């Protein structure tokens, strides 16, 4: 996706617009499978919550991926994209027993993360295999909102509650066919990940009928030139050896599973927005774009850094800008950032916009959610239309006064 290509996409499909590179998604998937090529049974379950467009899911299906889902709606999206139920794992948090029952009827692998639901489900459906999500009490992740394996996390069943799990299994005669963990996103130190993995291996010894161990994900991607990222190749080498050794100890060849989202799609996506106004104040030059946190909330929610390039003037002299949106609250994408000189109507390109960007978009201020485009085989394909005013009104019910 050259800059001229992106400019043409903005012209053809309007702005703001999300654009995803199918080739980058494919190369990231192959990079991960290559890193773990010495594992006899490897399962990559793409995390749908990162980017749930149906066409993107279909692309993952062609790559041989499975799906990691967190809602019955994501499960149904996966089925609509052509995935077999056995290719999908359902890992919700805090949902009702009914939702889990409804998903189980679809034939999807169930993953349960609390004792109450585990006991209720096991009592009613002892013959349905269940995975258990363990909280290893290992702090990992680049932000408290995305660190989910620590002791105060709402996710998973504490490793200190393993005796409770075993009691439930014994009483209900249910079948535990997998164990799972997820420590958090933006993991920098693979030794922390490997330490948590040892906890999972130790836990696995308590369950005799396992078919797979799911190590979650959270691999960090680079957000700018020279940025730190998870060393997937080193992790692959070290975890593969440990996993293969464990399978020998366990007496059975298990499947090693991951559930990456950001790693697979973040770098593949860009967000294009047009500059409405360049506003000079007493101390700041604002570049105000035709978007806001209704379309891209991560900088405001997580303090995430998205590299911003002026693709309309890539060779212009650099100046300092604060890039802000049009929402009637503070929505700052970048503060005092060096960017090639910006003029009104220029197109700015936000990098790393493939994961947790469109999926977190909203209609705040009654704005339309943007279009999505997939760059596939050197051609731009519209994969989601821009919303219209009719979409805003669609589900509203008027009453007479």
TrEMBL record:
Gene Ontology molecular function: diaminopimelate decarboxylase activity
Binding sites annotated in the UniProt record for pyridoxal 5'-phosphate: 218, 356
Pathway this chain belongs to: Amino-acid biosynthesis; L-lysine biosynthesis via DAP pathway; L-lysine from DL-2,6-diaminopimelate: step 1/1
Sequence similarity: Belongs to the Orn/Lys/Arg decarboxylase class-II family. LysA subfamily.
Catalytic reactions of this protein: meso-2,6-diaminopimelate + H(+) = L-lysine + CO2
Record-annotated membrane-spanning stretches: none
CDD domains in the record: PLPDE_III_DapDC
Cited NCBIfam families: lysA
EC number: 4.1.1.20
Protein name: Diaminopimelate decarboxylase
Function text: Specifically catalyzes the decarboxylation of meso-diaminopimelate (meso-DAP) to L-lysine.
Names of required cofactors: pyridoxal 5'-phosphate
Pfam family, one: Orn_DAP_Arg_deC
PANTHER family (alphabetical): DIAMINOPIMELATE DECARBOXYLASE, GROUP IV DECARBOXYLASE
Positions that bind substrate: 298, 302, 329, 356
Residue ranges constituting the Orn/DAP/Arg decarboxylase 2 N-terminal domain according to the UniProt record: 24-266
Taxonomy of the source species: Bacteria, Pseudomonadati, Bacteroidota, Flavobacteriia, Flavobacteriales
Subunit structure: Homodimer.
Boundaries of every Orn/DAP/Arg decarboxylase 2 C-terminal domain copy: 18-354
Modified residues (N6-(pyridoxal phosphate)lysine): 49
Alphabetical keyword list: Amino-acid biosynthesis, Decarboxylase, Lyase, Lysine biosynthesis, Pyridoxal phosphate
Originating species: Geojedonia litorea
Protein origin, superkingdom: Bacteria
